[in-house]
């Protein structure tokens, strides 16, 4: 498949003719067509251009009256028109090729063992290569137009339109048939190649990673490639009829018209199909984990630290009377009151916050404390019966023997394992609540998202880019908008206004997709707010003019959208996503898969007691860029959870690409 990838790049589409007819015969509909996707636009322009070239040959006399110098002059003119047309094709191809190759790469990845699909793809590739190479040959004629023998062009033209199995004419038929199946007989779009590829892509995107294209973008990229090829085929045929006419081989008005009708019909069918496949394709782009061994703190992930952390404390220090009359589990919400006789409590940093959910494991243990610069307190704890909390390894600071004791024979002063919620310099638990919005004055929209930890505060950072006509983004304008550089201790920075601080009571994050069904709005900002005890995502939506690519310029016409649901019961309640027995997320040897749905929430929790001595706060935050290629405006954004059972997983943003479906216009031919 590797070889074919390259060749595949040079291909193209089918929907042009239709548009052409429209544009030339019913001029007033031109305006409507401004509102379409790039490729349809190009097809329109090219086909209009080539039709105009017929003016040159219109008055060509029939064979009997050929005048050689006049003929040469006409040939030259036609070739010049061709050159103009070709310039547009090349420009489009150049712009398109990288996205197409990205799409093709994905095809190669997921198509893997599907023999039927491979065969179809191979056939399409083959046909497209043939059309493209013939097309290249034709464009070369232009360069040597003054030295060309008449017979060369005539042979080329005759070959192109000949009714045999090698002609371009025939290749176009085959391409269409392979792509759509026999749609005359079966309207069901599920049988066609585009739909099959889209379905496969969507299915595999949960397994194959880093595609950077939503399924809808993928379908469109493939389609554009095929459409360009069909356009080339069409140009060759028009050109050929013109040449034959120039050389007095006949009138050919009828033939050309028939061919055009054919192209028109196919284009219409293909566009209808494209529209349907695009409507059904998902538009989500998410980022999968890096290779399991390549998680890098600060680059691919970051952590909320020491929100709830396993902490060993003796019962005697958990109450103000220094008694040991209860059991560990009696202490569900308490604090350290003392340090009785300077025992183990004096040999470890204390917990200055509240202690929750204390439990008794075993009386006597060895504790391996973590290095002082670590956010962990303990590397591991080993009990006398052999049970280990965390992973036993080399202990740099040496282990401490910690034994519970009896007081007056009936009271056991046990060492309990509690969860410590301590706000300290080591506890990064802040989320920015200020808005991150794109620059209106420069006509910019949000094109990507990522989490970033700055001054211990998590921000949802936006990538912004200048919006251009027809849903394009100016690539060179793409930038990650710097996040607000403030510190929680700064003057005028207020908890609950500028930032949210997680705590035992308030540590939920809502997992929502915030988007709009209205295709005239796109995302221009994001922010978090606190609803009850939940962090909740909001997206700012702004109206755009698709055709001109301008934001409808006023902040008043933008609004913030969110999922305000706080129901805890009923059918539409916000469901809690629980993480059971989570190990450190980066320890998994397989990549995470998305596990949350819209309208759920998740809590930050401590890692599992046995797997990690409850030392880590999970989920981690994925801090990789989430952007699409090509960059497009977004109709929505979201926060979701990805992971694997038994591991803590990651919170990450996703983007929902703009829905281009309604700009796949199937023009109506007016009588
Ligand atoms: C197929 O589509 C055509 C035109 O859209 C329609 O007239 C015909 O009834 C359809 N056939 C079936 C079997 O759905
Ligand atoms: C149409 O194509 C679909 C998908 O290949 C197939 O399931 C269905 O049976 C076909 N219908 C007819 C009438 O051939
Ligand atoms: C070519 O055929 C068309 C329609 O058949 C006719 O209108 C036109 O006059 C013909 N042109 C020449 C140059 O014969
Ligand atoms: C802690 O310090 C040691 C030695 O100075 C260093 O090797 C290690 O990377 C540090 N760990 C952290 C988490 O900063
Ligand atoms: C040690 O004791 C704990 C608590 O009683 C128990 O859960 C664990 O299974 C024991 N471990 C071994 C190795 O016996
Ligand atoms: C794209 O953005 C760059 C940098 O912001 C700017 O110089 C250039 O003029 C823009 N191009 C278009 C087509 O707007």
Report on this model:
The protein has 671 residues and is α+β, with helices and mostly antiparallel strands. It folds into three domains: 2-282, no CATH class; 309-421, no CATH class; 430-663, no CATH class. The protein contains twelve helices and 33 strands. Strands 14, 19, 21, 22, 23, 24, 25 and 27 form an eight-stranded mixed β-sheet that branches. Strands 1, 2, 20, 26, 30, 32 and 33 form a seven-stranded mixed β-sheet that branches. Strands 13, 15, 16, 17, 18 and 31 form a six-stranded mixed β-sheet that branches. It is elongated, with a radius of gyration of 33 Å. The relative contact order is 0.12. The model is unreliable at 1-32 (pLDDT under 50). The structure holds 2-acetamido-2-deoxy-beta-D-glucopyranose (6 copies). The site of one 2-acetamido-2-deoxy-beta-D-glucopyranose (NAG) has 4 residues, from loops.
Task: Report the average pLDDT across residues.
Answer: 85
Globally, the shape reads elongated
> What's the total count of β strands?
33
Distance between the amino and carboxyl termini: 46 Å
The proportion of strand residues reads: 15-25%
- Please give the domain count: 3
- Bin the helical content: 25-40%
Number of discrete helical segments:
12
Coiled coil: 72-102
Keywords: Coiled coil, Signal
Signal peptide: 1-31
InterPro entries: DUF4803
């Amino acid at each position: 498949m590797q070889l074919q990838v390259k060749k595949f790049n040079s291909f193209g589409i089918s929907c042009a003719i239709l548009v052409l007819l429209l544009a030339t015969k019913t001029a007033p509909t031109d305006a409507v067509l401004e509102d379409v996707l790039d490729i349809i636009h190009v097809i329109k322009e090219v086909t209009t251009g080539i039709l105009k070239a017929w003016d040159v040959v219109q008055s060509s006399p029939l064979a009997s009256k050929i005048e050689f110098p006049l003929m040469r002059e006409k040939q030259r003119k036609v070739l010049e028109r061709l050159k103009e047309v070709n310039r547009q094709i090349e420009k489009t191809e150049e712009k398109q090729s990288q996205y197409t190759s990205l799409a093709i790469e994905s095809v190669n990845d997921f198509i893997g063992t599907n023999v039927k699909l491979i065969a179809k793809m191979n056939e399409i590739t083959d046909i497209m290569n043939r059309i493209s190479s013939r097309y290249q040959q034709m464009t070369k004629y232009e360069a040597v137009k003054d030295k060309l023998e008449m017979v060369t062009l005539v042979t080329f033209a005759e070959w192109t339109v000949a009714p045999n199995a090698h002609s371009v004419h025939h290749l176009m038929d085959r391409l269409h048939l392979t792509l759509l199946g026999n749609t005359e007989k079966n309207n069901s779009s599920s049988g066609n190649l585009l739909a099959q590829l889209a379905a496969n892509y969507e299915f595999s995107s949960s397994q194959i990673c880093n595609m950077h294209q939503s399924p809808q973008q993928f379908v469109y990229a493939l389609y554009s490639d095929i459409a360009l090829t069909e356009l080339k085929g069409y140009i060759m045929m028009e050109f050929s009829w013109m040449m034959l006419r120039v050389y007095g081989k006949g009138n050919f008005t009828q033939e050309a018209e028939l061919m055009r009708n054919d192209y028109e019909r196919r284009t219409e069918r293909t566009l209808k199909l494209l529209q349907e496949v695009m409507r059904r394709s998902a538009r989500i782009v998410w980022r999968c984990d890096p290779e399991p061994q390549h998680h890098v703190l600060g680059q691919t992930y970051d952590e909320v630290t020491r929100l709830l952390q396993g902490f060993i404390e003796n019962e005697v220090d958990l109450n103000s009377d220094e008694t040991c009359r209860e059991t560990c589990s009696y202490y569900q919400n308490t604090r350290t009151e003392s340090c009785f006789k300077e025992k183990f409590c004096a040999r470890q940093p204390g917990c200055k916050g509240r202690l929750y959910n204390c439990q008794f494991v075993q009386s006597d243990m060895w504790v391996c404390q973590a290095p002082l610069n670590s956010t962990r307190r303990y590397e591991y704890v080993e009990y006398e019966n052999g049970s280990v909390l965390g992973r036993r390894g080399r202990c740099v600071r040496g282990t401490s023997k910690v034994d519970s004791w009896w007081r007056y024979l009936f009271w056991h002063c046990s060492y309990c394992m509690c969860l410590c919620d301590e706000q300290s310099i080591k506890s990064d638990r802040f989320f920015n609540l200020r808005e991150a919005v794109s620059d209106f004055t420069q006509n910019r929209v949000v094109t990507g998202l990522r989490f970033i930890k700055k001054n211990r505060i998590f921000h949802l950072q936006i990538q912004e880019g200048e919006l251009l006509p027809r849903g394009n983004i100016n690539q060179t304008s793409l930038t990650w908008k710097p996040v607000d550089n403030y510190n929680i201790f700064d003057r005028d920075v207020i908890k609950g206004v500028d930032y949210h601080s997680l705590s035992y009571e308030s540590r939920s994050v809502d997992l929502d997709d915030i988007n709009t069904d209205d295709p005239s709005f796109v995302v221009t900002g994001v922010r978090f707010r606190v609803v009850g005890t939940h962090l909740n995502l909001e997206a700012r939506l702004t109206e755009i003019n698709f055709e001109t690519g301008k934001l409808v310029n006023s902040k008043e016409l933008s609004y913030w959208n969110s999922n305000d649901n706080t129901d805890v019961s009923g059918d539409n309640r916000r469901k809690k996503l629980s993480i059971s027995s989570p190990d450190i997320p980066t320890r998994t040897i397989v990549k995470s898969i998305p596990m949350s749905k819209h309208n759920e929430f998740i809590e930050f929790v401590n890692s599992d007691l046995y797997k990690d001595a409850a030392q880590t706060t999970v989920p981690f935050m994925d801090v990789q860029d989430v952007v699409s290629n090509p960059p497009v405006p977004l109709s929505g954004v979201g926060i979701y959870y990805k992971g694997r059972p038994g591991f803590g997983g990651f919170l990450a943003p996703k983007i929902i690409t703009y829905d281009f479906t309604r700009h796949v216009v199937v023009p109506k031919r007016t009588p």
